[in-house]
């Protein structure tokens, strides 16, 4: 795991150099879905304390195990009926993508007396298989969020389409960065565009070159996932 991480850090560094960015801008979020707790502990020992997960049940289990030692980001599709159980146990939700979820988050955050921090998930490739809202609807959606009192937008997230030729993902990441910049300029209440979450094991160097500042890496850190166990 240590050499995997060093390998990733080197690639981050190179990608940053290519476009004159400071590598300190890049937050590496290890994605620990399906990974068991001793592997997570190994990553903790290597200096990580924040992990990405995509299933509510799994977050609850791991949250109980690690208690306050670890922070979780919810990066997967979030069902409204699971919001209540998780809203005060995650640091950031990357997958705010519809009004019904916004309504529920706003309500449950109010009930708990907290502000819930979210990224708006964009389906930048307009793929049927993926969640996220289409780019042309992002502005209206964020304006709607900005009317609420208990939900805060910290940025955008996307999962780029899988491309045979990795260079072909560039155009999608570029579109995300320009959306991100345009929304920043609006200076909306409850909106502070700080995080652009894009790039995974196969495409993170391109994402960084195009402006990502949070990359979500699973396989390249923990190895291939074993979905059977979950
Ligand atoms: C699983 C997952 C990742 C990590 O993917 P890898 O290819 O294993 O790096 C990143 N983002 C989301 C939303 C995921 O579900």
From TrEMBL:
Database matches in InterPro entries: Ala_racemase_N (IPR001608), PLP-binding_barrel (IPR029066), PyrdxlP_homeostasis (IPR011078)
Modified residues (N6-(pyridoxal phosphate)lysine): 33
Domain Alanine racemase N-terminal stretches: 28-224
Keywords associated with the record: Pyridoxal phosphate
Family as reported in the entry's similarity comment: Belongs to the pyridoxal phosphate-binding protein YggS/PROSC family.
PANTHER family reported for this sequence: PROLINE SYNTHETASE CO-TRANSCRIBED BACTERIAL HOMOLOG PROTEIN (PTHR10146), PYRIDOXAL PHOSPHATE HOMEOSTASIS PROTEIN (PTHR10146:SF14)
Protein name: Pyridoxal phosphate homeostasis protein
Species lineage: Bacteria, Bacillati, Bacillota, Tissierellia, Tissierellales
């Amino acid at each position: 795991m240590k050499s995997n991480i060093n390998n990733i850090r080197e690639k981050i560094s190179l990608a940053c150099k290519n476009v004159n960015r400071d590598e300190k801008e890049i937050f590496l979020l290890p994605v620990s879905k399906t990974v068991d707790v001793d592997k997570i502990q190994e990553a903790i020992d290597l200096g990580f304390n924040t992990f990405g997960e995509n299933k509510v049940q799994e977050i609850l289990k791991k949250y109980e195990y690690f208690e306050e030692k670890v922070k979780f980001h919810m990066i997967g599709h979030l069902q409204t009926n699971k919001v209540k159980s998780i809203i005060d146990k995650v640091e950031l939700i990357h997958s705010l993508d519809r009004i019904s979820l916004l309504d529920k988050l706003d309500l449950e955050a109010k009930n708990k007396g907290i502000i819930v921090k979210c990224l708006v998930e964009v389906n930048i490739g307009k793929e049927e298989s993926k969640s996220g809202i289409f780019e042309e609807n992002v502005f209206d959606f964020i304006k709607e969020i900005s009317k609420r009192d208990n939900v805060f937008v910290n940025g955008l997230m996307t999962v780029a389409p899988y491309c045979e030729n990795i260079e072909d993902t560039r155009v999608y990441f570029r579109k995300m960065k320009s959306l991100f910049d345009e929304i920043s300029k609006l200076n909306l209440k409850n909106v502070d565009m700080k995080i652009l979450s894009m790039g995974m094991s196969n495409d993170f160097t391109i994402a960084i070159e195009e402006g990502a500042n949070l990359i979500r890496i699973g396989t390249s850190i923990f190895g291939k996932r074993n979905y059977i166990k979950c």
